[in-house]
Amino acid sequence: MRELGSRRELFVDDWLIDRMDGVALRLGSPTPREVAIVFDAPWEGNVSAYVTVFRDADRFRMYYRGANYDVATEAATHPEVVCYAESEDGIVWRKPEVGLVEFEGSTANNIVWDGIGAHNFAPFRDANPDAAPEAMYKAVASGEDGLYAFGSADGLRWELMQDAPVITQGAFDSQNLAFWDVGRGRYVDFHRGFRDGVRDIMTTTSSDFLRWQEPVWLDWGDTPPEHLYTNAIVAYPRAPHLFVGFPKRFVPQRTAVEHPYPGVSDGVFMASRDGVRWRRWREAFVRPGPMPARWLNRNNMTAWGILTTASAHPSLPDELSLYVSEGYYAGAEGRLRRHTLRQDGFVSVRADARGGEFVTRPLTFEGVELRLNYATSAAGSVRVEVQDIAGGAIAGFALEECVETFGDHLDRPVEWSGGADIGSLQGRPVRLRFEMADADLYAMRFAR
Q: How far is residue 233's CA from residue 185's CA, in Å, rounded to a whole number?
């Protein structure tokens, strides 16, 4: 029995699906947009990376490693630093002079940290209601012997929370991350480890951010191992019981563009309901595309964080923004390009024009409306039948009584011709039968 309550459920896996006929789960693909930021300051450069983005009240914040590498001499041209940028809309970003850290004799820069962990500093705004004011912002970053914990009152001035590392089991030479898991009331960490010589991901939890449980490996089920360079895992804001991740997949044995360092990369998508067992898609979520520089080595790294931003067209709803690296190891500067996706648009149940249907597992719900996030063609449609758990149509909610739903909406209610009140079925075990044609269904929820 699936107990949905009134939360939003995305079709990122088959957790809710009992059987399908003529439909399939289809991976979405974000649309590349403008370059959001260029890492062109003297303290930044062509291997600036491990970007974090999040919304913080009236602004968006961005943190990233400032670094540059001379391929000819095989050496860094300056020490690694942690840089800061901010934006009012998630589209236009600025690098404020924060005046905190000296670089080549001047503090007129956007550097916020240059100590231990500058290689992969990953901050977040702590959503724990009991977070201390002096550590309202937290971060993890690696040193020689593990992951260290950092705290800040304002997100700019940082201090170690203790001298010793808080997590020691792992490899850590990547973007490791931690955050407050709102849905489960705990801190959760995801960090790199090597399993049988392959870059992989470990996880652990904590009640206080300083004392962590023994890490465990993520469980991929039957999905074969691949080099996962990063993980970029978040609790999805519109459905925080779901974890979604955007690892950079590294294929070390391939070379597409002549360069001293081999390998090609792309971005993949994965989802989990407990943080340990994952559905990871083999198909790419972000392909390198036609730009030659994105076929070079360690490009196409998705930043940690999903932002909700305004669409470029005033008649369209807000969309999700993801940020992906390009220009890594190429030339004098790296870049971060914004990509957009419809809200909940990671995966859909798709039916082609021939039509198909699927039936859910038995479920209970709380609410008075069934609302869908879907898109159809002009000729396409979605209809819903509410069934008892044996599969029989419930009077008033049969397929032929459902008003044909078509169009493109993020949260549209389903109606039945007789005005049947789905709220009368709250708490009763039911199934939902979806009949679709030339349509994508991304998410559903019962609204109170």
A: 17
Q: Which residues of the chain have pLDDT under 70?
A: none
Q: CA nearest 21: which of 433, 448, 417?
A: 433
Residues whose CB is less than 8 angstroms from the CB of residue 270 and which lie 6 or more positions away in sequence, other chains included:
244, 245, 246, 247, 278, 279, 280, 281
Please report the DSSP string for 145-185 in residue order: TEEEEEEESSSSS-EES-SS-SB-SS---S--EEEEETTTT
DSSP-assigned letter for residue 261: S
Q: What are phi and psi of 293, to 5 degrees?
A: -65, -25
Query: What is the set of domains in the chain, with CATH numbers?
Result: 2-27+347-447 (2.60.120.260), 31-341 (2.115.10.20)
Q: At residue 222, what is the residue type?
A: D
Q: Note the pLDDT of residue 259.
A: 86
Residue 227's region, left for phi above 0, alpha for psi from -120 to 50, else beta, is: beta
**The tokens of 24 are what?**
């399939």
Rounded to an integer, what distance in angstroms lies between the CA atom of residue 119 and that of residue 143? 9
Contact 302, 324 (CB under 8 A): yes
Given this model, what pLDDT does residue 330 score?
86
* Phi, psi at 423, each rounded to 5°: -60, -25
CA–CA separation, 10 and 7 (whole Å): 10
Whole-Å CA distances, 136 to 259, 274, 373: 43, 25, 35
| CA torsion angle 143 149 153 156 (round to 10) | 20
d(CA 306, CA 194): 27
CA gap 370, 357 in Å, rounded: 17
pTM of the model: 0.97
* pLDDT on residue 258: 86
DSSP 202: E
User: Could you tell me if 237 and 267 are in contact, meaning their C-beta atoms sit under 8 angstroms apart?
Assistant: no
Nearest 5°: the CA angle 334, 335, 337 is: 155
CA 366 – CA 6 distance, rounded (Å): 5
What's the confidence (pLDDT) of residue 412? 98
pLDDT digits (tens, 9 = 90+) for 90-115: 999 999 999 999 999 999 999 999 99
Helices (H), 317-405: none
Provide the residue type at 391 as one letter.
Answer: G
